[in-house]
């Protein structure tokens, strides 16, 4: 059965995430970060941030709430039992700080088949309360046995 | 500039990362479930390992998170708690605008768990 590619180009409604100081700290501790700009407001401001800064990979925290509904969308029809997260790219823009309100929109970028495997590529674009782009994520999920 | 980082996630790291990230997929936090689906044990979140690659690159660039402009990785194999992860990288290109490209990988127990990672850094000066 050929892969259904009808969902290519489909976008999902914006997902909003309000960034909090303690959530940044929880994430930073979990991944082993020690830089004071992730924990201490004064240290962050001294380094030129508006408030406590989020580590770059905190992008996962505020954007996954936008990506998940796209992964589960019936039009996309992704077979989770056979899925692996194959690749990930982030391109960072304006830094994210505590107090920011981040809005993320996810789009189905591509669905294709190579060697019996389905490649599902999603793009998430996150912007802050001032309309500045903070991160652009490309999420590649691979599904085995699609043909 | 040299990228090198060693970290050993403890037994409960996947649980803390699950809480921090919101990804509670049982293959990461439930040993019995992981074994039922054919894995040797619960496995690390790939995005946790990517965060180690990001941290190694930021540290190498001088520690400012604004140095990291782009990071692209391929997930390969599986990472496990209680085993040391080694992240290594080397500069492959120095661009005229001051940015550098760094080829990075993460290895655990002799196996690559992230390969072909490329970081674009703007080192602080």
Please state roughly what percent of the residues of chain A sit in beta strands, choosing from under 5%, 5-15%, 15-25%, 25-35%, 35-45% or over 45%. 25-35%
Measured by DSSP, the beta-strand proportion of chain B falls in: 35-45%
Helix content of chain B: 25-40%
In quaternary terms, these chains amount to heterodimer
Largest interface, per-chain counts? A-B, 32 and 30 residues
> Which residues of chain A sit in consecutive blocks of at least 5 with pLDDT less than 50?
none
What is the succession of H and E elements of chain B?
EHHHHEEEE
State the end-to-end distance of chain A: 6 Å
Number of strands of chain B: 5
| Rg of chain B, Cα atoms, Å | 15 Å
- How do the strands of the widest beta sheet of chain A line up side by side? 1-3-4-5-2
How would you describe the overall organization of this protein?
The complex is a heterodimer of chains A (147) and B (125). Chain A is an alpha+beta fold and 147 residues long. Chain A contains three helices and five strands. In chain A, strands 1-3-4-5-2 form a five-stranded antiparallel sheet, with helices on one face. Chain A is elongated. Chain A starts with 14 loop residues before the first strand and ends with a strand. The mean pLDDT of chain A is 95. With 125 residues, chain B is of the alpha+beta class. Helices cover 27% and strands 35% of the residues of chain B. Chain B has four helices and five strands; from the N terminus they run E-H-H-H-H-E-E-E-E. Chain B has helices at 13-21, 26-29, 31-36, 46-60, and strands spanning 2-7, 68-75, 85-94, 100-108, 111-121. Chain B has a five-stranded antiparallel sheet with strand order 1-3-4-5-2, with helices on one face. In chain B, strand 4 and strand 5 (111-121) form a beta hairpin. The longest helix of chain B has 15 residues, at 46-60. Chain B is elongated, with a radius of gyration of 15 Å. In chain B, 39% of the residues are buried. At the A-B interface, helix 1, helix 3 and strand 2 of A face helix 1, helix 4 and strand 2 of B. Strand 2 of chain A pairs antiparallel with strand 2 (68-75) of chain B, so a sheet runs across the interface.
